[in-house]
Amino acid sequence: MNFFLVLSGKSVKQISLVVIAAFFTAAFLFIGNLSLTPVFSTKDGPKAVYRGEKDLALTFNIGWGDEKAEPILDTLKKESVKSATFFLAGSWAERHPDIVNRIVKEGYEVGILGYAYEDYTELEDVKIGKDIAKAKEVFKKLNIKDITLLRAPTGHFDERSLKIAERYGYTVVHWSIDSKDWTNPGVVQIVENVKKANKGDIILMHASDSAKQTSKALPQILKEINQKGLKLVTVSEMIANGDVKSQEVK
Description:
This protein has nine helices and nine strands. By secondary structure, it is α/β, with parallel strands linked by helices. The protein has two domains: 9-38; 48-241, TIM Barrel (Alpha-Beta Barrel), CATH 3.20.20.
């Protein structure tokens, strides 16, 4: 027995509108999910860590300037923060060994932010390797050894740079919460940007001179973290304490 479904022109039009609406909704959600996934890994290859399973990691990038880093260190000391990770550009570390020494003496973890603060996705393989090697040599001269973490200088990386970083013995670290402090949107907005942080998140902040409002926002950020009962750890501790998350890059 055969059955036939007869649709009027009006019905076809209504169904078409539903299908189109569903398509655009799916596309919107897909794009939205992509924007919430800022870090990747190669298939069956090296990974870039962007969040962990528990605890919270506070990270600071420093690429230039000598005015904002120490007020941030003062605040961390005042607030009794024992664990944070500083990603330092080699060229900056060369010019400010005293600040680097203070970061290390106060017990904070050091990661590499490349040397010349160049976008790795725009460099040839050889130049990426040279930048990493040059930064490594700088920290060796500053007597900081066994650094295992690297953050892509501009936050941009690809499959090539992940593999090169691994070749030099580094794990690439991205972030899951961006404070956007470098845009200087105001203390209230910086705090709001970090407010959604929860267990497993890696927070991106800056201690370069371009981030003029970070030190003022930091006490309120730390207050919010304490109120949530979250424990601050270094990125290395986060990696060691549980599973870390990444997503494939092709």
